[in-house]
Structure formats: structure tokens, C-alpha cells
Amino acid sequence: MSFKKKIETTFLSLIIGFFTFSQYSCNEQQKPEKKDSVADIERRVDSIMKLMTLKEKIGQTVLYTTEHDVTGPVIDKNYLNYLKSGGVGALFNATGSAFTRKLQKIAVEETRLGIPLIFGYDVIHGYKTIFPIPMGEASSWDLDLIQESARIAALEASVEGLHWTFAPMVDIARDPRWGRIAEGAGEDTYLCTRVSEARVKGFQGESLNNQETILACAKHYAAYGAAQAGRDYHTVDISKNTLHNVYLPPFEALAKAGVATMMTSFNEINGIPATGNHYLLRDILREQWNFDGFVVTDYTSINEMVHHGYAENLKHAGELAMNAGVDMDLQGGVYLEHMEASIREGKISEERLDEAVKAILKMKFKLGLFDDPYKYCQEEKEKAVILNQEHLEAARDVARKSMVLLKNDNAILPLNKEQKIALVGPLANDEYHIIGNWVAQGDRNGTAVSVVEGFKEKSIDFNYAKGCNIENELVDFSKAISIAKEADVVVMVMGESERMSGEAASRTSIKLPAIQRSFINEINKLNKPLVLVLMNGRPLDLSDEVRQVDAILETWFPGTSGGHAIADVLFGDYNPSGKLTVTFPRTIGQIPIHYNMKNTGRPADIEGANERYTSKYIDAPNSPLFPFGYGLSYTKFEYGKPELSNNELTADQPISIKTKITNIGERMGEEVVQLYVRDRFGSITRPVKELKGFQKITLEKGESKVVTFTLSVDDLKFFDDHLDFVNEAGEYDLFVAGSSDHEFTNSFSLVLK
Ligand code: NOJ
């Protein structure tokens, strides 16, 4: 018997457990689902671990990129050699059934133990069918829809051999200069938590063993969004109050909801890089939250601890990371190169390495890879699943529900199909940028629907001219002016390029590029009704445009079916219902600005305040241009005063809040009904208001509905100065409205016995 055969036989007999193990045969038909119990998995993992050499164990903690996609600065082209010698446990940036199958075959057939690989990828807002960027999707406030878009993304990715997405990004993002604001769910902790839970449900489904589901990854742990000055990868210096009350809760919720993996962030937090942060990774994540998955670094973030000035050299950095609780090294090669020596020298214990390897192998079992390592390579299904009609329709629906109508003077929208329309602007006939940044395998050339195509589908009379490029020059300018002169209404599709948001795309200005502003100025001189359609990945400073145009529709980067979705909204085939998840400032000088700021000792709006010595700017109001939660509809909603079931909230007696909402406009519409609460004072100061609930409802013309929220003591807890998660007795105010910008209408007391 050959050595390999011998090993296989021993291996098989040890891991078989209760199961019949068909050694990695190509599985054409999906096997019936088999859910291993936790104990079964533990037993099977233990039996494999007994066979593994130290080198093989280290190999499981190593993740490398292939050359199929580039998502970071370093590509170590030796991944194939490492793989063959058992030095790689997972790969990313490898796509397509044929390619992933080929690589899996190497792992299974050419390594001593044949342990299958996990394939990861940044499937952020769709795989080939691209949905709106996450900030856009979140603006729908529609959790079922968001879950469904993640489910479709997982389905498309999983038939191409992928098991793992590096999503969702659950970083709270309050700085519009930071390009990655596009990738999250905005500035609010409660909303981000709900949206992130929906995304994880969509990716992971009911069982990871199902071929159509993939591992999710909550990232970037932690506080990546609090980068100083909005500059990507920058220092984070944050109070414990803000860290625990604002930035950590979405991670906690996902750890508890069973997210499979977490990714550490690039940044340091109060002097300690997240990737070497024992407090975050061990004390909080494992000890307090009982996180049961594995922790991966961000791209070379172990190595970067040397640049941070926290590690002396790479070996030291690896020790800091492993000892802090990082299980897998993404692209750094540090574990592969230095871990053995660190273990030999006693700098890392073998028990700690075992813990990491176990967590990784457990996921491979949960995915069913030991029963069939090729089960996700579904060549024969790819065609039927990828970009199918159902997915394109879903993308259209999510896109239109994500759009936010920011302004609509004189009800200029929806457009009348009989009007003569001039369609201009750099993004009007675009199929490249419309799908946004981080598009996995999304096609930028030929698959996405431009606004021009969307208009054509509506069979309306319109003329098109570009007018200018996104960033630098006028193009077809005279034609644009002349068609605008002839038109009843001008629709301008403007915004950012896809490269202007996302990773490593921070901006010091959040205005539209200068050439576009000049172009708008010229069009504005024609005195025509103007509609501005925006595509962008961050809140923009629209102070000038808001004065110049009659209507503004924020479409984010709406994805593959974006042009259809925009036309649906502009022509009234869909009534917009999106609401902002991030504040739009009037000027960059207001940053940081978010709806749930703290008060000061000298609030500007306090009655009887001395006008001069209050907390304000001398050259701009404190208020934003568009607040969190804001968004218009083609109809109007009237809110009644909330009715409270009781005025005292106790541990045994939650309060129910009933509010009647009536559609008083001329057509059916959807409304995001939002509940905000203020804790008047506390042992640490409290935000001026906090979102505590929301519901999206549909109302026919003239229809009323009573929306009920329930508040319990748990909803009012916060981390105090000792980091105890507490309730504090006292007075609270609330309101229910269609935006965060509203007066309080009711109050109640929290009584603790
Ligand atoms: C760096 C990014 O920060 C992270 O979000 C991503 O998942 C990795 N690169 C892998 O591409």
C-alpha cells in the first residue's frame, strides 16, 4: 500500500464517524442535505487534527489570493507551490467552477491529507447580477429585500465554487469623506445592526451545508469607519463610550446570530492595531460574545503592524496576531513563514494554534466540504443561475426601492411621458460606473442597463447628449445645450465615478467634480425645469445644486438593472420610498455631523440662549442639508400623535406606541415609519435622539394604518462609564415620523424597581 493510500485509509477510518465518506468524487447531482451535529463535527475535526503535522496545521491558517482578481497591494505568486505542500487552507479571488475545481483538486489529490480548501471572495452587492451598493440598499430600509439580494448573491457565487463572502461590512460610517461609507449601512447603530443581520441571513441561509449558501464575514472589526479625517486606513482614537455604544453592537449582534467569520480591521484603536488587539479579539469577541466562527485578518494587516510601530518585525507581528486571537492570515504570509519558529520558541502555544485550526476545520465541515469538496462547483448550473431573469428583476426592484427623492419642487416628478425631454450628463449613457465599486464578477461592458436604455424601454420622446465627462472635460457640450433649449424638461445624470468611492477612495471635497458643476451652471442659465439624477457612493455637498434644480433623485450606484429602475422612478411607474441612512451635510466643514450627536452645554436652539455664545458656526447653520431618515415620495403621509399604552415603562411592562399614518396624497406609496427616543439625562451624556424602531408600510391613496412599536427596558440599555450594559431610571421623550428631523411629541418614565 502506498504511503498516500495508507494515510487516506487511516484518515478515512478516523473521520468517517457515522457517515459514509465518498472520497471526493465529482458530485454532479447535489447530495441530500446532511446536517452534522456539533458533537459529530467536533469528533471529526479532532480525528483529523490527530493526523496533522505542525506544518499542516499552520497551512490551514493561511489564506492567499490568486491572480484572477486584485483587491490589495501584494500578490505572492507562489500560492500554488504553497498549496501543493499543504501550506494553504483557503484561497480568495478565484472564481468560476472550472478554476475553483482545478485548485480544489490540487488540495484534495496532491496534498498529504487532502483537506479541501475554502474559496472566499468579496461578494459585496451581488456576484454577477449587481444590486445597488450597500449604502443604497440600506436606504430601502426593507430588510426582506436586503436579505433576498444577499441570498441571490450567495446563490450566484456558490454555483461558481465559492464558499465565503467577505461581507457584510458592518462598520458605522459617519464621515462622507471616507470612501468606504458606500459599503455599509450608514451612520446609525440600530439600523446597521438590523440591515447586517438581514444580509447575514441572506448569505448563510438556514444551513451552511446547503450548496446555495455561503459563509458571511462581519467586517472590519473594529471601528474602521472612525478613521481620522475620513482618510482610509487612518488612526482611530475613540472613547470607550463611543466604541461600545456605537461601533461594536452590530458585531455583537452578528456574533450572537452565528455569523461564520469576522475580519479584523486595518486601523489601530487607541494605540493598538485591531489585528493584534487582545481586548477586542479575546476578551470581547470570544469571552463576552462567545463567537464561534473564525477570525481572518484584512489584507496583510498582520504585516502592517510593523508600519503601525506596534510590532518589531513580521515574526513578532504574527505572534501578536495569533496570541490576540487571529485565526487566519489573509495574504500576509506571516503565519506560513514564521509560525513554526514562534511555536518552537514558545512565543505561541500549540494549543492556541490548535484552537485556530479547529475553528477553520469546523467551517469546512459545516460547509460539507469533507463529504464533497466539489459540491459548490456547479458548472452545469452556472448558466441557468447567473444573471437569470428573476435575478435581474430582483435587482431592478431593489434599485428602485433604494432611491431617495431629495427634492421635488412643484411636483416636477414624476415626468409626464408626453413631455419633450433632454437627457444629458456623463452618467446618462453609462454601463460602466452604474454598477459601482466592489462588483465581484459584475460586467462593466454590455450587461448593465444605462439610463438611456431605461428611457428607451418606456417608449418616450427624448434626446440625449453627454455634455461633459465625469471629471475633466466638456463633451458634446453644444449639442447638450441645444437639446436642452428645445426641451420641456432637462434630466441631468451626474455624480462620481465608481473609483471615487470604495476602498482607498477618500476625498477631501464631497462636491460634484468641478466640470459637472460648470455644466450645471450653463444648463441652469436656460431657465428650464431641471431634474438632477445622482449616482455616487457617499453623501455629497449639494448646497449649490439644491438651489439650482427643481428635483433631485439620489440613485447611488443602482446596479445591473439601474437604468430601468431610474426610468421606473422618474416616470412614476414606481413611487420612491427610500430614506437616507447617512446625513448629507451642507458643507464639509460640518463633519462630523450625524443625527444622533450629543448636545453641548450651550445648545444653539435652546430658548433664551445668548445668541453669541452658543455652540454653532458663524458661517453656516448647524443643521444638515438633508437629515438621516429623510426622503420624499410622490404622495404625502400625515402622522397622528402617537398614543402610548402607559406612561411608565418597567421591566414587566413594555410600552406600546401606536401611531396612525394616512396617505393624504393622490397615489399609493410606501413609507418608512421611524421611532426615535431621547434619554434626557444619564450617568454618561446621551445622544439627542436615537432610532429605536422602524417599519416600512404601503398605503393606498386615502388609506390609514396604525403602526405599533413596542419599547421594552432592553431597548433603552446602554454601556455606562464602567462598561456595564445598564438601564437608568428617568424621563424619556419620543416621536414617530418619516425622518429624524422632528420635534418630540410624547414622553414617558423608565421606572426601575
Ligand atoms: C481589503 C478590504 O479592506 C477588505 O474589505 C477585503 O475583504 C479584502 N481587501 C480582501 O479583498
From TrEMBL:
Keyword hit for Transmembrane helix = no
As one GO molecular function, the record gives: beta-glucosidase activity
Q: Where is the Fibronectin type III-like domain?
A: 671-740
The yes or no answer to whether the keyword Signal is present is yes
Give the Gene3D superfamilies listed for this entry. Glycoside hydrolase family 3 C-terminal domain, Glycoside hydrolase, family 3, N-terminal domain, Immunoglobulins
Return the Pfam families for the record.
Fn3-like, Glyco_hydro_3, Glyco_hydro_3_C
Question: What Enzyme Commission number(s) appear in the record?
Answer: 3.2.1.21
Please, which domain of life does this record's source organism belong to? Bacteria
Recorded hits in SMART domains, A to Z, give: Fn3_like
- InterPro entries the record matches: Cellulose_Degrad_GH3, Fn3-like, GH, Glyco_hydro_3_AS, Glyco_hydro_3_C, Glyco_hydro_3_C_sf, Glyco_hydro_3_N, Glyco_hydro_3_N_sf
| Entry-linked SUPFAM superfamilies | (Trans)glycosidases, Beta-D-glucan exohydrolase, C-terminal domain
Checking PROSITE patterns in the record gives:
GLYCOSYL_HYDROL_F3 (PS00775)
* Keywords recorded for this protein, A-Z: Glycosidase, Hydrolase, Signal
Q: Give the catalytic activity.
A: Hydrolysis of terminal, non-reducing beta-D-glucosyl residues with release of beta-D-glucose
Show which residues constitute the signal peptide: none
Q: Which family does it belong to?
A: Belongs to the glycosyl hydrolase 3 family.
- What is the protein name given in its UniProt record? beta-glucosidase
Q: Which organism is it from?
A: Sungkyunkwania multivorans
